[in-house]
Structure formats: C-alpha cells, structure tokens
Amino acid sequence: MLWFQGNSMQLAKYSFQLLLRNLSSKTLLPVLTLFTKDPCPLCDEAKETLEPYKNRFILQEVDITLPENSAWYERYKFDIPVFHLNGQFLMMHRADISKLEKQLQKLEQQGIGGWRAPS
C-alpha cells in the first residue's frame, strides 16, 4: 500500500487494527487521518469542526512529534493540521467541510472499500 511507505511499523499496525475493527462492523467507514501534535490549537479547532460528521468516518490521529513518526514530522511540521482520507492527501491548515463532504460522497458513490452510507 502506498499509504504505508515511509511510515513506522507502529502506524501500520494501528491502521491495520482500525481496518479489522472496521471490517467487523456492518458498515465500512473511510479513515480520516489527522496529522497533529500537542499542543495544536488549529488541530483542536479542526476536530470541533468535524464533530457533526464523526459518524461518517473513523478518525485516526497521528502525533508527528513522536520518534516513530519522524517522516511525517519532516513532511508536515509547518502545515498541521493535515488530513488524509483513506491514505490520500485531502487538506491542510484547516478542516474544509465542503472538500470532505465531496470526497465522502465520491467514496459512497464508487463504493470504494465496500463503504456504504449508514441507512
């Protein structure tokens, strides 16, 4: 998978656990990854913005300051918050709800990963 290139084994393992948990549910949800650090007021603001949409994706947070995430730190240290949707770059600096909504609808229409909107 392209998503795991340059990532630590721990991130890959965590992502795999999310996938397994997701597969055991009736509805597959896309994974929205938030690259963040502590403190990050912009990240906190972005998470608040995403709160009404939390039932449409699984939020995975990656602390870029941890040693095992140094590749992400080098890539995003000046740009957090950064979001990936299902391993693909989506947005940075803020949560763009219209962009997120458009991509979630596209995933639903294409049925990527078996994802279907909850009924």
TrEMBL record:
Family matches, as InterPro entries: Glutaredoxin-like, Glutaredoxin-like_YDR286C, Thioredoxin-like_sf
SUPFAM superfamilies membership: Thioredoxin-like
One Pfam assignment: Glrx-like
Annotated keywords: Electron transport, Transport
Statement: the UniProt record of this protein carries the keyword Magnesium: no
Gene3D superfamilies for this protein: Glutaredoxin (3.40.30.10)
Protein family membership: Belongs to the glutaredoxin family.
Designated name of the protein: Glutaredoxin-like protein
Lineage: Eukaryota, Metazoa, Chordata, Craniata, Vertebrata
